[in-house]
Amino acid sequence: MGKKSPVKYFLIALSSIFVFVMLIMPLAVILSEAFKNGFSAYANVLSDSFTLHALQLTLFATFAAVVCNTVFGLFAAWALTRFHYKRSKILTTIIDIPFAISPVIAGLIFSLTFGRIGWAQPILNYFHLKIVFAVTGIVLVTIFVTLPFIARTVMPVLHARGTEEEEAAALMGAGGFTIFRKITFPHIKWALLYGIILCTARAMGEFGAVSVISGHLRGKTDTLPLLVEILYNDFKMADAFAVSTILVLLALVLLILKNIVEYKWHSAKE
Amino acid sequence: MSRIKSNSIIPGFNLSMGITIFYISFIILLPLISIAVVTSGITWQGFLDTVLDSRIMAGYKVSFFCSFIAAAVNCLFGTMLAWVLVRYEFPGKGIIDGLIELPFAIPTAVAGISLASLYSPTGFIGQIFDPFGIKIAYSQIGITIALIFVTIPFVVRTVEPVLKNMDPVFEEAAYTLGASRFMIFRQIILPELVPSLLLGGGLAFARAIGEYGSVIFIAGNMPYKSEIVPLLIMVKLQQFNYAEATSIAIIMLLFSFLIMFAINSLQVYQQRIVQGGTK
C-alpha cells in the first residue's frame, strides 16, 4: 500500500493549491492592501486615536469574556462531570446554544432584553445602568458567543478520566480546592489553555453580535472589527486593511500558540 | 458508576452547580426568553406576513443554498486535506496543518473585506474571471466562497481522527485480493467516513447559515439576489422593527435547533468510532 503513485502527488498538489488560494491569498491581500499608501500612511492609521480606542475596547471586552468564561467553564466542568446528576445532559445542551445560533440573533436577543423595548429596561433605568449601545452590552454579547469554548474543551477530558482519583482524595480528607489544584488541574491544564486560546480568538473577532448591540458610537463603542467595517464602508480601503493587520497579527499569534498547546497536550497524553 | 449525586463524596456540588445554573440562566436563558416575550405581542397574521414576504423567502433560499454548497465543497476538499495530512509525508505538511484553523482565528469582518477585494472585478482573482463574464464578488458565488472560507476547519478536523484510527488490515486484504485503489476508497474507506462527514458537514452548514461578518462585504446585499437571512434581521433592526426582526429570527432559531439536535446525535456516534479505534 505504501507505494508511491501519481495519485499521491496529485492529491498533495491539489491540497496545496486549495490552501494557497483559500487561506494564504486572503492573508497576503490584507498585508499588500494595508501598505498600499506607504508605511507612513499605515503608521498614521495605527496611531489614530479612534484606532487606539477601538484596540483598547477590543482587548478589554476579550479579557473580560475570557476571565468570566474561564471561571464559569471550570465550575461547569466540575459540576457536570464530577457528579452523576441526571440533568447534566440538559445543562450541557443549553451551554451549546451560543454555538448553534447566529451571532446576529445573539445580538438581537440582548437588545430585546435590555434595549429600548426590552422588558428589563425599567430595572436598568432604576439603577441608572445602560447595556445596549454601551460597553457593558459589548462585553455581555462577547461573553455569550464565547461561553461554550472553555467548558466544552475541558469537559470531555474530565469525562474520559472518571472520578476515582478525586473520590480517593476526598476520602482521605482533602478539601474541594486542594483536590482541584493537586489532582484535577494537572490533567486539564492543556485543555484549559486550548479553550482559552479559542475563546480569545473568537472574542476579539466577534462582529455580528457586537454590531447589533454597539450602536457604532465612534470613539465610544467601536471595537476593532467594527472600525474595520466603518472604514471599509467609507471607502477608506487602505485604512480598513491597516486596522485589520492588528487583528491579523493577534490571530496569527493565537494560531501559533494553539498549535504549540496542541502539540504539548498530545505529548503529555502519551 | 451509577451513584446518584447525594452519595458522591467529592465536595463542591452545590457551589459549582449553583454557579453553573445562575450563569447560564443570566447569559443564555434570560435573553432567549425575550424572544417569547416579544413574540407574544405579534399577531399570527403579522408573523406570517413577515416570514412569507417574498424578499425574506428569497433570503432563506440564498442562505440555505449557499450554505449547502459551501458545506458540500468542504466535505470534498476537507476529506482530501484530511487524507493528505494523515496518509502522506511531504515538505510543507506542517504549514498546511497549522493553517487549517486560520479561518477560526481571523476575525470574520477582516476575512470579509479581504475576500471582497480579492474577488472583486479589479481584485487579484476577480480580474481573471471578469473577462469571461463571471462575477464572483457581489453574487451568490461570492457568498459561497466566503462561507467555504469560514467553515474549512470543520470537515478536516472531524474526518482526520477517524482516518487516523482506521485499521489498515481491511485495505491490505482488499489490495491483496486485487481491488483497485478507487474500489478500496469507495467500498472500504468511504463508508467508514460517512458519519464523520455528515457531522463535519453539519457543523459547517450550521455555522454557514448564521454567518454574517465574512459574507456581507462580498455579497453586495442586493434584495432578492444576494441577501442572507442574518443581514435581513440586521436591516429590520436598523429600522427599529423589532417585531419583524424577531419573527425572522424565530424561523432561523427553529432551523438552528433542528440542526443542533441532529449534530448532537451524530456526535455521540462519532465519539464511539474515534474511541473504539484506539482501544
From TrEMBL, chain A:
<keyword id="KW-0813">Transport</keyword>
<feature type="transmembrane region" description="Helical">
    <location>
        <begin position="9"/>
        <end position="32"/>
    </location>
</feature>
<protein>
    <submittedName>
        <fullName>Sulfate transport system permease protein</fullName>
    </submittedName>
</protein>
<comment type="subunit">
    <text>The complex is composed of two ATP-binding proteins (CysA), two transmembrane proteins (CysT and CysW) and a solute-binding protein (CysP).</text>
</comment>
<keyword id="KW-0472">Membrane</keyword>
<feature type="domain" description="ABC transmembrane type-1">
    <location>
        <begin position="55"/>
        <end position="258"/>
    </location>
</feature>
<comment type="function">
    <text>Part of the ABC transporter complex CysAWTP (TC 3.A.1.6.1) involved in sulfate/thiosulfate import. Probably responsible for the translocation of the substrate across the membrane.</text>
</comment>
<dbReference type="InterPro" id="IPR011866">
    <property type="entry name" value="CysW_permease"/>
</dbReference>
<feature type="transmembrane region" description="Helical">
    <location>
        <begin position="131"/>
        <end position="151"/>
    </location>
</feature>
<dbReference type="Pfam" id="PF00528">
    <property type="entry name" value="BPD_transp_1"/>
</dbReference>
<dbReference type="InterPro" id="IPR035906">
    <property type="entry name" value="MetI-like_sf"/>
</dbReference>
<keyword id="KW-0764">Sulfate transport</keyword>
<feature type="transmembrane region" description="Helical">
    <location>
        <begin position="90"/>
        <end position="111"/>
    </location>
</feature>
<dbReference type="InterPro" id="IPR000515">
    <property type="entry name" value="MetI-like"/>
</dbReference>
<dbReference type="InterPro" id="IPR005667">
    <property type="entry name" value="Sulph_transpt2"/>
</dbReference>
<feature type="transmembrane region" description="Helical">
    <location>
        <begin position="52"/>
        <end position="78"/>
    </location>
</feature>
<feature type="transmembrane region" description="Helical">
    <location>
        <begin position="191"/>
        <end position="217"/>
    </location>
</feature>
<feature type="transmembrane region" description="Helical">
    <location>
        <begin position="237"/>
        <end position="257"/>
    </location>
</feature>
<keyword id="KW-1133">Transmembrane helix</keyword>
<keyword id="KW-0812">Transmembrane</keyword>
From TrEMBL, chain B:
<comment type="function">
    <text>Part of the ABC transporter complex (TC 3.A.1.6.1) involved in sulfate/thiosulfate import.</text>
</comment>
<feature type="transmembrane region" description="Helical">
    <location>
        <begin position="98"/>
        <end position="116"/>
    </location>
</feature>
<keyword id="KW-0812">Transmembrane</keyword>
<dbReference type="InterPro" id="IPR011865">
    <property type="entry name" value="CysT_permease"/>
</dbReference>
<feature type="transmembrane region" description="Helical">
    <location>
        <begin position="62"/>
        <end position="86"/>
    </location>
</feature>
<comment type="similarity">
    <text>Belongs to the binding-protein-dependent transport system permease family. CysTW subfamily.</text>
</comment>
<dbReference type="Pfam" id="PF00528">
    <property type="entry name" value="BPD_transp_1"/>
</dbReference>
<dbReference type="InterPro" id="IPR035906">
    <property type="entry name" value="MetI-like_sf"/>
</dbReference>
<comment type="function">
    <text>Part of the ABC transporter complex CysAWTP (TC 3.A.1.6.1) involved in sulfate/thiosulfate import. Probably responsible for the translocation of the substrate across the membrane.</text>
</comment>
<comment type="subunit">
    <text>The complex is composed of two ATP-binding proteins (CysA), two transmembrane proteins (CysT and CysW) and a solute-binding protein (CysP).</text>
</comment>
<feature type="transmembrane region" description="Helical">
    <location>
        <begin position="136"/>
        <end position="156"/>
    </location>
</feature>
<keyword id="KW-0813">Transport</keyword>
<feature type="transmembrane region" description="Helical">
    <location>
        <begin position="240"/>
        <end position="263"/>
    </location>
</feature>
<keyword id="KW-0472">Membrane</keyword>
<feature type="domain" description="ABC transmembrane type-1">
    <location>
        <begin position="60"/>
        <end position="263"/>
    </location>
</feature>
<protein>
    <recommendedName>
        <fullName>Sulfate transport system permease protein CysT</fullName>
    </recommendedName>
</protein>
<dbReference type="InterPro" id="IPR000515">
    <property type="entry name" value="MetI-like"/>
</dbReference>
<keyword id="KW-1133">Transmembrane helix</keyword>
<feature type="transmembrane region" description="Helical">
    <location>
        <begin position="193"/>
        <end position="220"/>
    </location>
</feature>
<feature type="transmembrane region" description="Helical">
    <location>
        <begin position="21"/>
        <end position="42"/>
    </location>
</feature>
<dbReference type="InterPro" id="IPR005667">
    <property type="entry name" value="Sulph_transpt2"/>
</dbReference>
<keyword id="KW-0764">Sulfate transport</keyword>
